[in-house]
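Go through this chain.

——
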Amino acid sequence: MKKYNPNIHHRRSIRLKGYDYSQAGFYFVTIVTQNREYLFGEILDDEIILNDAGKNANECWLEIPNHFPNTRLHEHIIMPNHVHGIIEIVGANQYSPNQYSPNDRAKNISPLRSPSKTIGSVVRGYKIGVTKWFRKNMENEFPIGQSIWQRNYWEHIIRNEKSYQKISEYIINNPLNWKEDKFYTL
């Protein structure tokens, strides 16, 4: 493996420069499995059939507001090799990492209950939760060090009702359109 060289190894950020990702709003996120591997189930007759890993991924998604009280969940779908969902951040700017003392942070705050209230911390917490399940339940197939997820995630800031409706329909209809989906592979 080559040693890191900042002159040639630089990643372009896919985030909107200068945007505060902790501010209230709606965010459409897509999280993809490593190598687009089908880990969560399959599409049969235009419907997602979740396996145990997919059921866990769905449960972890539904748990997000318990770990991030500044969130509300909207439409989401667990697909064979990716997750789509709309997460609403509410009142996030009232939270501050400075509210917690160093002792609180060390003793009482898990990685899933982070004082950070950005959409990135929510996605990171979700990925950690799903990965922990894989490590515990599928240790032979996914030993420590093997990634479940692709690095990063894709997000879109939803700015109006028309965009929200279009994205909601896309999420709901994702299984119907599976064979045309960019994440579909044979």
In short: The chain has one domain: 25-176. The two ends are 31 Å apart (CA to CA). The domain at 25-176 is CATH 3.30.70.1290 (Alpha-Beta Plaits).
